[in-house]
Write a structure and sequence with these properties.
Oligomer: single chain
CATH class of the largest domain: Alpha Beta
Distance between the termini: 33 Å
CATH superfamily of the largest domain: Vaccinia Virus protein VP39
Radius of gyration: 23 Å
Strand order of the largest sheet: 3-2-1-4-5-7-6
Number of helices: 13
CATH architecture of the largest domain: 3-Layer(aba) Sandwich
Shape: globular
Length: 418
């Protein structure tokens, strides 16, 4: 089997499915488990730190591990950096079968920090019987020193190991998501996959084809022209799933189009139409036609970008570029579409009022992580966004896994556009 520790909602599993393989995922979060179940993935709902290693000994081909990043991420308090010496001590002890986790955990500032040492407990037990054949691990960049520690241990056990930082955008993901990666193998030389994309397109040479330009958000979302998108505008539903009508607020609340309907422009001049609630919806909620026009008849006036959070230093990327790293879980981390008028020199009339920010939908966020448009995210909006932000982009996972599986990766199998 392929053992997937901290399996999340199925980023690695989705990649394995495309490549013709399956994993057994260990995951604690109930909503991630529900998403996995709905997509047909084998899952054991458990605490990875408590589950025994014995069921996997003698039957494990590969190990995947993406420990929770909250303790290390720049989106949080980053207490994992404070706890890092304790995590290294746990790895050192577990590598020789000495379990000091209870004592070390008591000293940690963030109890999640020590989860980054858990893969070593499984690897040490499996190594006793000459398993696994390969290992792939992923975390935020600040965990790279820990991967260096793992590499030293694995090399002592006969593995070839590579570790370093990879940018997901270099592999066709519409997101400049940088992650610390560890690749190890007993049966082949471990090396990173060859990048397929670059920030600027490269010409073909005598040595082979050049890399294509990074995939933009517009391409991934299937919005067509990069300067004329129409974000999904839907009714109701805040991050917690409760009602939050948008006309009177400073933001227009969004929801997945499968839940409450999508409003789209029509040739007959009707600017909003509900596919589920009827044309009277706008009148009942006091939506004025001229406010909606910014998303329809006047869409050509706007240049849209994605703002990664509500903070002053938020990453803002044009639709003609990949997104910044998507992360959720806190109100300040909401991603919103923001519009700016196209320069006045291109306007033939007075520049209209800039439309208000629009929250990204779970469907859109999933597409920017290279999940299918119809991926069955479970839970309310907050729970869905948390899963999406913590997941490994399946397309990046496919590039990392394909060499270990001995199969060729076809990026076209990872559908991006809706």
């Amino acid at each position: 089997m392929i053992l997937d520790l901290f399996a999340g909602p199925g980023g690695w599993s989705r990649a394995l499915h495309v490549l013709g393989a399956r994993d057994v995922g260990l995951e604690w979060d109930q909503w991630a488990c529900k998403s996995r179940a709905a997509s047909g993935q084998l899952t054991i709902r458990t605490d990875v730190a408590m589950y025994p290693t014995s069921p996997f000994i003698g039957r494990t081909r590969g190990v995947i591990a993406s420990p929770p990043c909250q303790a290390w991420s720049m989106a949080g308090k980053r207490l994992g950096l404070v706890d890092q010496p304790l995590v290294h001590a746990a790895v050192e002890d577990l590598a020789v079968g000495h379990d000091t986790r209870k004592r070390l955990l008591a000293a940690c500032r963030d109890e999640r920090s020590l989860l980054a040492a858990e893969p070593m407990r499984y690897l040490q037990a499996l190594n006793a019987v000459g398993e696994p054949d390969w290992v792939v691990m992923e975390e935020v960049p600040d965990v790279l020193p820990l991967w260096k520690h793992y590499a030293a241990v694995l090399r002592g056990w006969g593995f070839s190991v590579w570790y370093g930082i990879l940018n997901a955008a270099d592999f066709g993901v519409p997101q400049t998501r940088r992650r610390a990666i560890l690749l190890a193998s007993r049966v082949r030389t471990a090396q990173p996959p060859t990048p397929t994309h670059a920030q600027l397109a490269e010409p073909d040479t005598l040595f082979g084809p050049g890399r294509t330009r990074w995939v933009s958000m517009a391409q991934a979302l299937g919005w067509g022209a990069t300067d004329r998108p129409v974000p999904t505008v839907c009714a109701g539903g805040g991050p917690g799933g409760g009602p939050e009508p948008f006309p009177s607020g400073s933001r227009k609340a969004l929801s997945d189009s499968r839940e409450r309907g999508t409003w789209t422009p029509r040739a007959d001049g009707v600017v909003l139409q509900s596919r589920r609630e009827g044309a009277g919806w706008a009148a009942r909620h006091s939506i004025r036609e001229n406010r909606a026009a910014a998303f329809t008849a006047e869409a050509h006036r706007w240049s849209w970008s994605l703002r990664s959070n509500n903070q002053a230093n938020a990453t803002v990327r044009s639709l003609s570029e990949p997104a910044g790293t998507l992360f959720f879980g806190h109100r300040a981390n909401e991603c919103t579409w923001v519009a700016e008028p196209i320069p006045a020199s291109t306007q033939t009339t007075d520049t209209p009022v800039v439309p208000e920010p629009i929250r990204i939908t779970a469907r859109e966020a999933g597409l920017l992580q290279t999940f299918p448009a119809d991926y069955p995210w479970a839970g309310n909006k907050g729970q869905q966004f948390s899963q999406i932000g913590n997941a490994v982009p399946p397309l990046l996972a496919g590039h990392l896994l394909a060499p270990h599986l001995g199969v060729a990766l076809d990026p076209n199998d990872f559908t991006l556009a809706a």
